[in-house]
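Long-time lurker. I teach an intro course on protein structure, and each term I like to show students one example going from raw sequence to a predicted 3D structure in token notation. This year I'd like something fresh instead of my usual example. Would anyone be willing to generate the tokens for the chain below so I can use it in lecture? Attribution to the forum is fine with me.
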Amino acid sequence: MENKVVVHMKDGKIHKGVTQDFLASREALHLLPAEGGGVPMRIRLEEMKALFYVKDYMGNRDFVARRQFAEAKKAGRRAILTFTDGETMWGTLADSEEKAAGFFFFPVDEEDNNIRIFVMRSSLKEMRLVP
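-- Reply from a regular --
Happy to contribute to a lecture. Here you go:
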């Protein structure tokens, strides 16, 4: 199944496209660029900040995600992530092994353009679990 994704790299680059072969246990994924197709790119997971599964590529630059858990209906452990680049996200964690290189994260705000996010642990400055 094709997944519409936006890949944020640790070096600040952003790639948009579709992927069919992402697995957290693999070293890389292949991304077919969104604009005009072309040749698939090979993206090494260790170079990623995060892989965003999105509703659409445009998003909404004016959107401000809700930052509270009281109304959140998603299951999972509540957490606030702070990336090494200063970005902060509120959401819930999917179950994962602590030794794994990454994990899935679900934004708390259902209006967010991001459906789910695969976060590389090495791109985090802090993960604060919220009771």
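Some talking points for your students: Residues 3-54 form a domain with the SH3 type barrels. fold (CATH 2.30.30.100). The chain has two domains: 3-54, 77-113+121-130.
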